[in-house]
Amino acid sequence: MIWSLIKRDLILAMRSGGTWLYGLFFFAVFIALCAIALGGAFNVMRPFAPAIIWLAVIFSAMLSFPAIFQSDFEDGNLAQLKISGQSLLGVCTAKAVSFATLSILPLILAAPLAAILFDMSSVSIAAVMLSIGFATPALAIYGLLAGAILAGRQGGGFLIVLITTPFLIPILIFGVEATQSYVQSGLGAVEFRVLIGLSLISIAVGLPAASAALKANLE
Amino acid sequence: MAELFSRMGDSTPIKAHIEISDLAMSRGGMPLFAGISTKVLNGDILWIQGDNGIGKTTFLGALAGLHMVDDGKISWRINDHPCQAGQITAYQPHASYAKPALTAREDLNFWASLYGTLTLAETALETVGLSTKTNVPTRKLSAGQRRRLALAKLVISQKPIWIMDEPAAAMDQDGLKLIDDLVRNHVARGGAAIIASHSPARVLSQATRKLTLRATS
Known about the structure:
The complex is a heterodimer of chains A (219) and B (217). Chain A is mainly α.
């Protein structure tokens, strides 16, 4: 059933007229504006590049969080999923996978293009991509948790930012640190282990919490 | 119709029932009705009637396990053992829950894959009269055709108790007959149906009853 739901969400995204790409547009615009604001000199921008790309990822993800459960909640599909006897944990897992595929994966793939703008070395580009990749489960699941808590509430978009910020701060700190230490220590850098740890915690704690929040909202 | 139900086997294997005792519900803090007690067993048809705003939809939602109740109790049972509402009920809400961007076939197949009844999906589409619309996105279907799709989902759910909210709305004469036939066949093989409707209750099985909701004074 998890695979059926993922497949359905991917088909719906492809037929949505490109709304799933808004996050990617926002990511590109944010990075371009940062480059303009910093004056465009490579030697000034290069040290800030990983931090800017990471900020762009976080903001872009936040922009996509409210949509995770919105339409399925409003049109009654979530209620039907619940009463059809499906486990909400499975629903949340499927939603996390489709969110990671539709909203985070495009950012990872676009990161090298952003890196050209900042004249980053190929090692730093790899570091940025890897650090975002390892943090993807945590990014997706904490967004999912906030989306589940606020499903069906008016004006939830603003609260989603407030709820997710504390969860995203450690990811941001270690994500940026990981890109810097990758240059010296490679994947063995301790920051990568912390990122993986954060992702594992999100799977162990965030997913059940999201399914509990969804259950409460469906009653 | 005959083909669809013969593919599903002669009788539903599950002995299911819903027992409602002294139920009271409210919506948004306003009390709706109170003191409802009844029982729905295999082979029953229960028509729910009442004025607009009396709480028919809230009542059906509660029977499907979607709402908390204020007072009283609803218990769902398989072979006299308590179970989750979703194990024995299928719910057709008033509004369509078809995904507008999916075709009728994709939308039905998604639910069929969850229920494990993919083999029934194609026959179900034919039976509800959508065989020429299988590749049409559901957003381009008429209101009545979307209701037919929802009926197909009830059938493929293979759940013993159908809960239907105004299934006749937006349906043509042929569609009304389709609903009656589906319910009659379902009940004949041991299923049960709870139907909210404004049209007069029709006797579709020997155990047809009527429940009229009245406001709490």
